[in-house]
Amino acid sequence: MKAPFTSLAGFRAVFDALPQPDAAALEAATVRNGQLTKPKGALGRLEGLAIWYAGWVGDGRPALERPQVAIFAGNHGIAARGVSAFPPEVTVQMVANYRAGGAAVNQLCKVAGASMTVTELDLDRPTLDFTQGPAMTEDELVAALAAGWEAVEDEADLLVVGEMGIGNTTAAAAIAAALFGGSAGEWTGRGSGVEGAALEGKTLVVAQGLERHAEALSDPVEVLRRLGGRELAAMAGAIARARVGRIPVILDGFICSAAAAVLHAIRPGALDHAVAGHVSAEGAHPAVLARLGKEPILELGMRLGEGTGAIVAINILRSAVACLSGMATFAEAGVAEG
């Protein structure tokens, strides 16, 4: 679907009238769940996940058949400040690895039965160093949001968004600090593996960015423009597109959650169509999920990004949906209810 906006004002207008889950499907799924051949609540969180999914796809007995994983890659001007354990060239190299099928995300997509798309966002033109000025112009932000929006496949019945971009945990930390308050140190973590003096330098970069743009940080869209990156903006655009199309979303780790938090800040409830796939080992991720009111499905100590934790959670959601839709009711099975 072509993005319905050509300006930041147009993007903001998307949030004026967001669709809600299908009430009839929610009711049908809830009733069916209560009639299945199991004790009430015996499947724990699987039951709630299946009902949530049913409401968003509009089917009280749903199937999960066409999950999409959309990966976005962008480069950051702040990478030149030594905030990552890897050089900026790795972004391009990893995109090639995705296309060749050699990354972890490729293997996990196969297991989850998910299609995978990769969108490169001006990799030869990094965003600006946000300690010196806004990371993106308004036109650049609109283009990145639209790229994310248009990457979502109309036929998808579940969306996971992932990212690649050296320096993007720094941008995510700055966004989280701007949206939720607190010091740079509370939100800045090891990312790709920095520690010691390098971590102190990364924290300083975040603090400088927050100070440089302090006058604009009450506006979440400006937070994204000034402190974010093209791949974070694209993730936000894709998640917004999913909401408009009532496509359920599984959020990935810290970077994805920071991008999604921009939508939550624009309008509380904007992420009702999303669940948290996992809590990552990046130190500030639990705090972001707490602010978003999201309980992670998995906790596996992962911190790769790229959508990997959320992709693993696809299989949990598949299990939930399979039980809701495939189990027999007491009446169908001829089993006496307790």
Automatic annotation (TrEMBL):
Key words, A-Z: Cobalamin biosynthesis, Glycosyltransferase, Transferase
GO biological process: cobalamin biosynthetic process
UniProt KW Protein biosynthesis keyword: no
Reaction catalysis annotation: 5,6-dimethylbenzimidazole + nicotinate beta-D-ribonucleotide = alpha-ribazole 5'-phosphate + nicotinate + H(+)
A GO MF label: nicotinate-nucleotide-dimethylbenzimidazole phosphoribosyltransferase activity
Enzyme class: transferase
Matching CDD domains: DMB-PRT_CobT
EC number(s) recorded for this UniProt protein: 2.4.2.21
Pfam family, one: DBI_PRT
Transferase listed as a keyword: yes
Gene3D superfamilies xrefs: 1.10.1610.10, 3.40.50.10210
SUPFAM superfamilies assigned to the protein according to its UniProt record, in alphabetical order: Nicotinate mononucleotide:5,6-dimethylbenzimidazole phosphoribosyltransferase (CobT)
Active site per UniProt: E306
Pathway the protein acts in: Nucleoside biosynthesis; alpha-ribazole biosynthesis; alpha-ribazole from 5,6-dimethylbenzimidazole: step 1/2
Recorded coiled-coil stretches: none
Annotated PANTHER family: NICOTINATE-NUCLEOTIDE--DIMETHYLBENZIMIDAZOLE PHOSPHORIBOSYLTRANSFERASE
Protein name, per record: Nicotinate-nucleotide--dimethylbenzimidazole phosphoribosyltransferase
